[in-house]
Each structure stands twice: as structure tokens, then as C-alpha cells.
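A.,

Following up on our hallway conversation. C-alpha cells first:
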């Protein structure tokens, strides 16, 4: 509700769009995908051990990471379209 009220203000909407486009052009999408990869590399062994102990190898780590990256990419594309078509 509160955030919706902000979008009724044309000054806010214009500044929001400008800031979004600044961050988008800086490569927010690519930097987050790199962060996902780095974090996955750091926790890969721990995940494997945890998964074996608690979940009997039911989860494919690489598949779950790819789903996260796909969701992120789709969400950023959706937001970029929504913000720039207001």
C-alpha cells in the first residue's frame, strides 16, 4: 500500500525510473549473477554434505542455482519493462 502511494506521485516515479536506469546500466543484473556464482562456489561442498545428511541427495545443487539465476534474470527484465513503461 505505502509503496503504491509513492507511484501516484509523478516526481517520485520520474526519480525512481532515473535511479533504476542508472543501476541497470551499471550492470546490476550481471553483478548479481556473478555473486550467485561466487557464493555457489563457496558453499558447494557444504551443500553436498548437508544434502547427503538431511535430504538423501534429493536436491541437485547446480539445477537449483540455475533456477535462481533464471528467476533473477526474468525478474530484472520484468521490472525493467514495468518501471520504464509507467
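Then the amino acids I'd put at each of the 86 positions:
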Amino acid at each position: 500500500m505505502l509503496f503504491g502511494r509513492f507511484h501516484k506521485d509523478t516526481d517520485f516515479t520520474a526519480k525512481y525510473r532515473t535511479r533504476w536506469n542508472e543501476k541497470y546500466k551499471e550492470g546490476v543484473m550481471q553483478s548479481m549473477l556473478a555473486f550467485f556464482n561466487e557464493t555457489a562456489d563457496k558453499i558447494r561442498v557444504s551443500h553436498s554434505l548437508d544434502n547427503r545428511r538431511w535430504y538423501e541427495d534429493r536436491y541437485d545443487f547446480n539445477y537449483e542455482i540455475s533456477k535462481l539465476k533464471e528467476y533473477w534474470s526474468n525478474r530484472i527484465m520484468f521490472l525493467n519493462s514495468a518501471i520504464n513503461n509507467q
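Residues 28-55 form the longest helix (28 residues). Curious whether your intuition agrees with the design.

B.
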